[in-house]
Design a protein that fits this description.
Blueprint: H1 4-13, E1 18-19, E2 22-23, H2 26-36, E3 41-47, H3 53-66, E4 70-74, H4 85-96, H5 101-115, E5 119-122, H6 125-131, H7 133-139, E6 144-146, H8 155-164, E7 168-173, H9 179-188, E8 193-196, H10 212-222, E9 227-230, H11 236-243, E10 248-251, H12 253-260, H13 265-285
Parallel strand pairs: 3-4, 3-10, 4-5, 5-6, 6-7, 7-8, 8-9, 9-10
Antiparallel strand pairs: 1-2
């Protein structure tokens, strides 16, 4: 049976467009649509299974209804070293609910089919190592994958398995990354370059690094691949300011916190939809 990911890949192949010599994927098409209208791409993050799979599906769809272009879906992990307390707590809730890697894959499939938006999965290396990178890639229904702690010696094999299964790769560039590390990340990226706005872990109240604008400018000078900024973005004003530097922004902790405020699914979805809607309007105003 042809998977949903393969169906979409075959569809995209019929319109062969190129970005810097690479075939444009569904993921790239979202960036191109916004770029054509001089708008920023909005990527929203939720943790799969927080507080359960049914609710997290509703939260993803609420993000799309609010105006999100791409959903980043976090695979819950016991020690998420790149994440702050808000997402750490979400991971803990998801794991306590019994969320499995299979649940995450099914959720990604369902979101893509229900909302017809690209899904980027984010997970830690141990998760993929334990089930086997080749095995994961052959089963993965996401458009792209982020592994913030991927060991350098594993990058080549990881990227080869991703490419073989039509999955884009996304790598992070920190504000203090050396030119060598920045170019390594760019060379391994086929989806978008994720520029980290702050030092340390994810969170809402982080100060933007004074080195960010120079690092983003360096990335954009070295690749035509889409560039996004994430970590520490919690308001429409901040999102709008940072979007001027790149092709898009990622909002995570501010959404996860609103999910954690409780209530039934309808109440949580309303909060998320309204917040994402405010971000979309801010970005569209420029």
């Amino acid at each position: 049976m042809t998977s949903y990911r393969d169906q979409q890949h075959l569809s995209s192949m019929s319109n062969s467009q190129l970005i810097s010599g690479l075939e444009v994927s569904r993921l790239h098409q979202e960036f191109l649509k916004r770029r054509a209208n001089h708008q920023a791409t909005l990527i929203t993050y939720i943790t799969a299974g927080d507080p359960d799979i049914v609710t997290s599906r509703a939260m993803a769809l609420a993000c799309v209804e609010g105006g999100a272009d791409i959903i980043e879906l976090g695979i819950p992990f016991a020690n998420p070293v790149a994440d702050g307390p808000v997402i750490r707590d979400a991971d803990a809730r998801a794991l306590a609910a019994g969320t499995t890697i299979s649940d995450c894959m099914s959720l990604a499939f369902d979101i893509r089919k229900s909302a017809d938006v690209p899904v980027v999965m984010m997970g830690y290396f141990s998760t993929f190592h334990n089930i086997g990178i080749k095995n994961f890639m052959s089963r993965c229904e996401a458009d792209a994958i982020i592994v913030p702690d991927l060991p350098a010696e594993k990058v080549k094999g990881f990227c080869q398995y991703a490419q073989a299964n039509c999955i884009n790769t996304v790598f992070l560039v920190t504000p203090t990354a050396s030119p060598v590390r920045r170019r390594m990340a760019i060379a391994a990226t086929t989806g978008f370059v994720y520029c980290v706005a702050t030092s340390g872990v994810t969170g809402e109240s982080k100060e933007v690094s004074p080195l960010l604008s120079m690092q983003v400018a360096a990335v954009r000078a070295e690749t035509q691949m889409p560039t996004v900024i994430g970590f520490g973005i919690s308001t429409g004003e901040k999102a709008c300011a940072l979007a001027k530097l790149a092709d898009g922004v990622v909002i995570g902790s501010a959404i996860v916190r609103r999910i954690a405020e409780g209530g039934n699914i309808r109440e949580r979805a309303k909060r998320v939809r309204e917040f994402v809607g405010s971000l979309r309007r801010a970005l569209d105003r420029g």
